[in-house]
Backbone:
């Protein structure tokens, strides 16, 4: 893996500091700093997703849905659900007797998602909740499925968030974590670094007038635990039958775990 990708990647260490991209900051600063990033990018988030991934993010999300086991009547939590791509699909799957909660810590992202889904006529079985993944405001054993797509890397205490997800998941339920990860090929890794740190901020500046936020997003990907480490973190939180599937050469990975 390239030098840029070898930045310190670890589970929470109990210290009072954490990372914000490649910077070390106080843990109590991170929520506000991440909030500022997503306040800035919310309006252009969908456009940037399509540009950054050449539309492939839609295939990653479709695969997540296919692996979810979702069916009519299920209760689903789309955590860090942002602009609601997964929520929209789950709404159709669970039907009138089911429920989908789109939860996000960021008010601006939540508003964009709510407006987008309502414009599409997706109402009735969808609710919107502003929530911190580390302290989910739901009763124990509430959900059949929890998804968190491209959101876990922005959480300050990932271990605490995974424990919170485990608590609100029903016995027999499953968690799906779709997140950027570690490319499995050295050449792909170097190419990905070149794209992330040189081209991506320029696209962010051109389209969203915000290079700094996209620089942070690129750095946050490199600081996220790699595939095996995240699998171990999920197991430490109590999840069983935990697996991951590399997508697009490991640029993205889908982790799955069950609560029994």
Residues:
């Amino acid at each position: 893996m390239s030098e840029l990708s070898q930045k310190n990647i670890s589970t929470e260490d109990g210290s009072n500091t954490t990372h914000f991209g490649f910077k070390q900051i106080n843990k109590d600063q991170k929520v506000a700093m991440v909030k500022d990033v997503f306040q800035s990018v919310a309006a252009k988030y969908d456009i940037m997703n399509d540009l950054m991934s050449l539309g492939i993010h839609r295939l990653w999300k479709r695969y997540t849905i296919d692996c979810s086991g979702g069916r009519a009547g299920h209760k689903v939590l789309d955590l860090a659900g942002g602009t609601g791509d997964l929520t929209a699909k789950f709404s159709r799957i669970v039907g009138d007797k089911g429920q989908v909660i789109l939860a996000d810590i960021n008010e601006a992202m939540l508003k964009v998602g709510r407006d987008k889904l309502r414009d599409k006529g997706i109402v009735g079985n969808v609710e919107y909740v502003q929530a911190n993944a580390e302290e989910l405001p739901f009763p124990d054993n509430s959900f059949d499925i929890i998804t968190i797509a491209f959101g876990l890397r922005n959480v300050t205490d990932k271990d605490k968030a995974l424990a919170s997800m485990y608590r609100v998941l029903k016995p027999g339920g499953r968690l799906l974590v779709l997140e950027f990860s570690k490319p499995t090929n050295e050449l792909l890794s170097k190419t990905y670094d070149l794209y992330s740190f040189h081209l991506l901020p320029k696209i962010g500046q051109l389209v969203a007038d915000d290079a700094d936020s996209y620089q942070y997003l690129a750095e946050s990907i490199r600081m996220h635990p790699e595939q095996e480490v995240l699998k171990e973190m999920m197991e430490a939180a109590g999840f069983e039958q935990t697996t991951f599937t590399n997508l697009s050469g490991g640029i993205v990975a889908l982790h799955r775990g069950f609560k029994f």
Q: What stands out?
A: Strands lie at 17-20, 23-26, 75-79, 99-104, 126-130, 143-149, 169-180, 240-247, 252-258. The CA atoms of residues 60 and 66 lie 10 Å apart. The longest helix spans residues 186-208.
